């Protein structure tokens, strides 16, 4: 049975890295004393080592050791032997390119589907969806495909942002962009606001946190779903 | 000699489509009575026909007829015979995929480099750069490559948006995203605010409009460049 947390963001405004997720992590990683961290999204261009150190500091209070996936001579074998995983945010194109080119997307998917706990934030959550095609990130590198793990039967739009009233900017709103996605694709999209996360356990999928999320289904008007709601209908 | 306008946006807040660009268009398309419109970016999923009609209405006051590129049986031949071009905004991934798959990116580049006037707005401006890798758009389709026409020796970031003070949103700012681009690429990037455009004529490249633009060069701190400045140094 899959056990997964896909969070909109790692960090809430004014808070420390992963601070608001500590209780969730304690539940998700119960009984786990070491995880593999996937640092490939490199937010702001941070090095794999520095990013892994940042993640390790946030897992230390839980008594969980963190090892970067980039440090293994045989990362696919390391994934199959790991107790659990965390993929940090950053640039989704970079993350997806690296995972595919190192042929690690399928091993990671298989390990998570076998029941090993997985947490993603932002880009790390995007790869839990069907594809990375509803990321907000800039295409700074060219991945061999946009397909991701499909741990859930829909796509995420992390850091979902409502239109800002009175802003005279004419660039597309997030809602317009997701509408454009649905002119070309039918995969449902969950607009996940900062502070919200998707929780997968015992075959159910739930919207967690305190905020509602915005649901986009092809051919339907977007609508809000309250925190605590089941997402199992969305496919 | 190339004669090109690459605008940040088609439409200023509260104004009609292409209204602020009418004087620029009168100069760019002087002596031209018909252009080809490239409708492939399909903003909001609008049809090729509907988008072409919208462009035609904005060109009518100049006495210029507009024909959609999608209407030609042999679009490559049509490009080689055309008097000039306009590519509208929308989704850059869709635009680039279509141009490459129909093998029209190179013919369009060749025609513009032969001196035929070209105007782009937003996505239509992105394809004037080296690559589409600094677009703001969502990757709703998978193009065969991110390379574009390279009519100018740098990339654009249209609808350039400064950080909004006091916004507690933790998603990346535009400046952070472009910084991430430069961890992987060395192509300079021009952050082009709405109301600004790049003007190429007689071998010179100039920043036009009333606003400054933000210049991003790999390994340097970003800086502002005043309207009216030459951009010929940027490569």
UniProtKB/TrEMBL annotation, chains A, B:
| The keyword Protease belongs to this UniProt entry's keyword annotation | yes
Pfam families named in the record: Peptidase_S51
What terms describe the molecular function in GO for this protein? dipeptidase activity; serine-type peptidase activity
CDD domains, A to Z: GAT1_Peptidase_E (cd03146)
Q: Which UniProt keywords apply?
A: Dipeptidase, Hydrolase, Protease, Serine protease
Task: Please give the biological process terms from Gene Ontology that the record holds.
Answer: proteolysis
Spans through the membrane = none
| Top-level taxon of the source organism | Bacteria
**Sorted alphabetically, which InterPro entries does this protein's record hold?**
Class_I_gatase-like (IPR029062), Peptidase_S51 (IPR005320)
Q: Could you tell me the EC number(s) of this protein?
A: 3.4.13.21
Cross-referenced NCBIfam families: PRK05282.1
Query: Family, per the entry?
Result: Belongs to the peptidase S51 family.
Q: What is this protein called?
A: Dipeptidase PepE
């Amino acid at each position: 049975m899959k056990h997964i947390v896909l969070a909109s963001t790692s960090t809430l405004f004014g808070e420390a890295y992963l601070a608001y997720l500590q209780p969730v992590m304690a539940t998700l990683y119960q009984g786990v004393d070491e995880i593999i961290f996937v640092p490939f999204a490199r937010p702001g261009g941070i090095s794999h080592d520095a990013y892994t150190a940042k993640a390790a500091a946030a897992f230390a209070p839980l008594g969980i050791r963190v090892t970067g996936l980039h440090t293994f001579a045989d990362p696919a074998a390391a994934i199959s032997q790991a107790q659990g995983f965390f993929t940090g945010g950053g640039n989704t194109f970079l993350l997806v390119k690296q995972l595919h080119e190192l042929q690690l997307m399928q091993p990671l998917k298989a390990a998570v589907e076998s029941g090993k706990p997985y947490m993603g934030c932002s880009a790390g959550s995007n790869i839990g969806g069907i594809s990375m095609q509803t990321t907000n990130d800039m295409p700074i590198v060219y991945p061999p495909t946009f397909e991701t793990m499909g741990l859930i039967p829909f796509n995420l739009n992390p850091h979902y942002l409502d239109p800002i009233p009175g802003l005279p900017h004419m660039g597309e709103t997030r809602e317009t962009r997701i509408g454009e996605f649905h002119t070309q694709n039918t995969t449902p999209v969950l607009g996940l606001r900062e502070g919200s996360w998707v929780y997968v356990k015992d075959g159910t999928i739930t919207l967690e946190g305190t905020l509602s999320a915005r649901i986009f289904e092809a051919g339907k008007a977007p609508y809000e779903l309250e925190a605590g709601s089941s997402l199992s209908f969305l496919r």
